[in-house]
Specification:
Elements: H1 10-32, H2 43-77, H3 83-95, E1 111-113, E2 119-121, H4 125-141
Antiparallel strand pairs: 1-2
Helix pairs in contact: 1-2
Keywords: Membrane, Transmembrane, Transmembrane helix
InterPro entries: Neuro_actylchol_rec
Protein name: Transmembrane protein
């Protein structure tokens, strides 16, 4: 059983990619029975799909194998750290998730977007907020 954590682990990602791969193979198998499009029923379509699926299968398994070997190496290095070095590493990883809060709502660190500026965005989010706001506005005005 895969552990229940609030983020995707490498194993979760592997299972999702494998599920997508199997779904693609199933869709390709279903397309072989379609006789409306002539090239679905030709023998070269099945051979090309078989070669592509084999290459994709080997590629993504190789990528996950290399990535898991690297993560194992990275995690095993933590076994040789003393308590001060480990505390420094943990604090360094925590800092990337901290947001600078300001009591001033008009601070330059806060970008207000959304309908009538009701949503506060931080970091890279102003870019995404502007993008989606422009997309939504263009859809609503059509």
């Amino acid at each position: 059983m895969i552990t229940k954590v609030p983020y995707l682990t490498l194993l979760h990602k592997y299972v999702i990619i494998s599920f997508l791969f199997i779904s693609c193979v199933s869709i390709q198998s279903a397309l072989l029975s379609v006789t409306v499009v002539s090239w679905f029923s030709s023998p070269w379509f099945d051979k090309i799909c078989g070669i592509v699926f084999a290459c994709v299968f080997v590629f993504y398994n190789l990528c996950f194998w290399i990535l898991s070997a690297w993560k194992r190496h990275d995690e095993s290095r933590k076994l040789y750290l003393d308590s001060d070095q480990l505390a420094e590493l943990v604090e360094k990883q925590k800092k990337q998730f901290q947001i600078q809060w300001s009591s001033d709502p008009m601070s330059k660190d806060i970008f207000w977007c959304g309908n009538n500026g009701r949503i506060a965005a931080f970091g890279l989010f102003p870019f995404f907020c502007l993008f989606f706001q422009n997309v939504c506005n263009s859809i609503l005005t059509k």
